[in-house]
Specification:
Length: 359
């Protein structure tokens, strides 16, 4: 008998969410962002499940792109962080990886090696993490022409800092800066737009959008859950009850004794903890579910288990599967109880948790 703790992954829901992204992208095409092991869902299976609909993938680094090739998939893969070494450029050519060139050193590598894969130029429109300033673009383009790499340039990318916040003026300002910066090269493609940008009315997404979290059913928008945005949960994180007991009034449960029973309470221990990626910061009253009924966590999350109050599920016995997040309890809700975002919870599920695929 093995521990039945598992992340159940609904690949149909993933495909439906990708379709939703495409509908919201309008005339833009959507590159499927599958970095960080497909946001914790398993990059090979996620990429394969989207392979008949997604014309392009995006990942952070070349190692992730290689796992897509190892899965037998041939679509171009954008490397959002570009290459980390000059020697990787040849591999990009060979495998049809499209690195983003975001800094001077990466331009140097193209000049020094004379190797240029298809690539993208990153424009810094206000995020101020990566990219060239709009003023620098003419000089960059001149260098590319001189290095005979200009023909390989597919287009320009930029990234929004505040697209999750519909009250922010930043996205409109960044969009205007991006359009102005790239207007001298109208035949090149343009890509902005993480998931959140798909939900901003009237937001231009140009040629390619880059949906990530929305494919996995997590909400990219502050104050909204994935289902409220028409997204389907993809991961259902489940773990079994491994014991039940009555905690008497006045007794505490778990490390630190932080939760004390006010009355005799039937509680259960669930075989999942922060060693599996369940957030330790999720405190008492964080929701979970059993048989479609909502229950709550009590006390501190341990490495391998956590405690739940079974008052709402009096029939629940040892072995019953508890949903930590999924259909009944949204991952966004749990994230908010833990002071974080669904991205961190989904990417944080550790390798101890087997991924089980439904398609
Ligand atoms: C991760 C990433 C995305 C996807 O962002 P989501 O918020 O998950 O949709 C898009 N573009 C870039 C540059 C990224 O790094």
């Amino acid at each position: 008998m093995s521990r039945s703790t598992a992340a159940h992954i609904d690949l149909n829901a993933l495909r439906n969410n990708y379709r939703t992204a495409c509908e919201r992208a309008g005339s833009a095409q959507a590159m499927a962002v599958v970095k960080a092991d497909g946001y914790g869902h398993g990059i090979a299976r996620v990429a394969a499940a989207l392979s008949d609909v997604a014309p392009k993938y995006a990942v952070a680094c070349i190692e992730e792109a290689i796992t897509i090739r190892e899965a037998g998939l041939s679509q171009p893969v954008v490397l959002l962080q570009g290459v980390h070494a000059a020697g990787d450029l040849a591999e990009c050519v060979q495998h049809r990886f499209e690195p983003v060139v975001h800094g001077e050193h990466q331009l140097d590598w193209i000049e020094q090696t004379g190797v240029a894969p298809d690539f993208w130029l990153k424009v810094n429109t206000g995020m101020n993490r990566l990219g060239f300033r709009p003023d620098d673009l003419p000089a960059v383009m001149a260098r590319l022409a001189k290095a005979n790499a200009r023909a390989r340039l597919r287009g320009f990318v930029s990234h929004f800092a505040c697209a999750d916040d519909s009250d922010s003026l930043m996205t409109a300002a960044q969009t205007a800066r991006f359009e102005a910066a790239t207007s001298a090269w109208p035949t090149l493609m343009k890509s902005v737009g993480n998931s959140a940008a798909h939900f901003i009315p009237g937001q231009p997404l140009f040629d390619w959008s880059r949906p990530g979290i929305m494919l996995y059913g997590g909400s990219p928008v502050i104050g909204k859950t994935g289902p409220e945005l028409g997204l389907e949960p993809v991961m259902s994180l489940q773990a079994p009850l491994i014991t039940t007991r009555i905690v008497r009034a006045g007794e505490s449960v778990g490390y630190g004794g932080t939760w004390v029973a006010e009355q005799d309470t039937r509680m259960g221990m669930v075989a999942i903890g922060y060693g599996d990626g369940y957030p330790r910061h999720a405190g008492t009253d964080t929701p979970a579910a059993i048989g479609g009924r909502r229950i709550r966590l009590i006390g501190r999350v341990s490495m391998d288990m956590l405690a739940v109050d079974l008052s709402n599920a009096p029939e629940a016995q040892v072995g019953a599967p508890v949903e930590l997040w999924g259909q009944t309890v949204g991952v966004d809700e749990v994230a908010s109880c833990a002071g974080t975002i669904s991205y961190e919870l989904l990417t944080g599920v550790t390798s101890r948790v087997p991924r089980v695929y439904l398609s």
